[in-house]
Amino acid sequence: MLKIGLIGVGHLGKIHLKCIRLAREVYDLVGVYDADAELAARIAEEYKVRAFGSAAELIAAAEVIDVVTPTSTHFRVVKQALEGNCHVFVEKPLTETLEEAKELIELSRRAKKLVQVGHVERFNPALLALGEVSVQPYFIEAHRLAMFNPRGTDVSVVLDLMIHDLDIVLKLADSEVSEVRASGVAVLSETPDIVNARIEFCNGAVANLTASRISLKNMRKVRLFQRDAYISLDLLEKESQVIRLFDADATGIPERGQQFPLETPRGHRIIHVDQPPSGPVNAIQMELESLAHSIREGKPAAVSIEDGYRALSLAQRISDAVAENQRRLPHPQS
Ligand code: NAD
Description:
Layout: E1 2-7, H1 11-22, E2 27-33, H2 37-47, H3 55-61, E3 64-67, H4 71-83, E4 87-91, H5 98-111, E5 115-118, H6 125-128, E6 139-145, H7 157-173, E7 177-185, E8 194-201, E9 206-212, E10 219-226, E11 229-234, E12 239-247, E13 258-264, E14 267-274, H8 283-297, H9 305-328
Parallel strand pairs: 1-2, 1-3, 3-4, 4-5, 6-9
Antiparallel strand pairs: 6-10, 7-8, 8-9, 10-11, 11-12, 12-14, 13-14
Bound molecules: nicotinamide-adenine-dinucleotide (NAD).
The site of nicotinamide-adenine-dinucleotide (NAD) has 24 residues, from helix 1 and helix 4.
């Protein structure tokens, strides 16, 4: 059992608190701390947990610190936790700047402590359901659309929403980025609220991503196109669909799913449509538990601090490309 402390009990922090309680086989919740002392006291009363008077006291009492504070504070809080000899779970994005992220990587290596970043979509049942399906996409299309909510607008939509898909795309493409083009518009907040990015990878794969926080509906879809397969992931509905092409005389066509014959210039083929079953998964509980298992087994974190850095670095390139694009646009007549 690892002693865990939770820093930040706002909107998502409360959900983390419940998930830590569910992960009772691996974690013992020693207490919470929030800069808003009144909120911390209310949460302590409601959830029958101790509210600590400072982050330092909580860190001294814990082995693992779960950081669910605003992005602009991640660097300071994670640094303090690592210096206090704790392993860390930190919500996405890792930090606000690459310099901060680099410093934390150094610090975690020196302290020999794990840092896992909350790229929770890695634990989405739609993605987990792919299991043994071979994923080698040539082209990836991602749409993450959300209705407006002032929470999270302290950073651009790239750091707030697109970062989830950047982590997935980097994992699936499994190649270095060669080229980034992007454009975006700040409509309701001070930073871009809608962004489209085209990312080219050294292995030839291309990803086209759109993220918006000013949509009239919510959508989180990732579509993967690869040789002889099309994979569609609905991360909101937590469902996936795998459509594969087989030669008519191929062996090993999965029994589950539906088959349709198709005449193509390459001969008689079979379209196989499968909806891999995805069980009910509490993704936040699972990501928190995965950190405990990594600590116990001395293995790297499932979503490592380096993964968090890569996603942040790509987000930075996209933000720079958006800014560059905006500089070239004609200014509206006032
Ligand atoms: P929130 O504003 O609702 O809560 C943040 C809490 O942190 C507040 O209670 C605030 O008082 C407290 N706080 C601020 N500075 C602090 C400090 N220095 N020390 C201690 N407490 C401090 O924000 P939220 O929506 O819960 O978001 C928190 C983090 O979670 C952000 O980094 C955000 O990007 C991330 N997030 C991730 C997802 C996801 O899908 N993984 C979804 C939403 C938010």
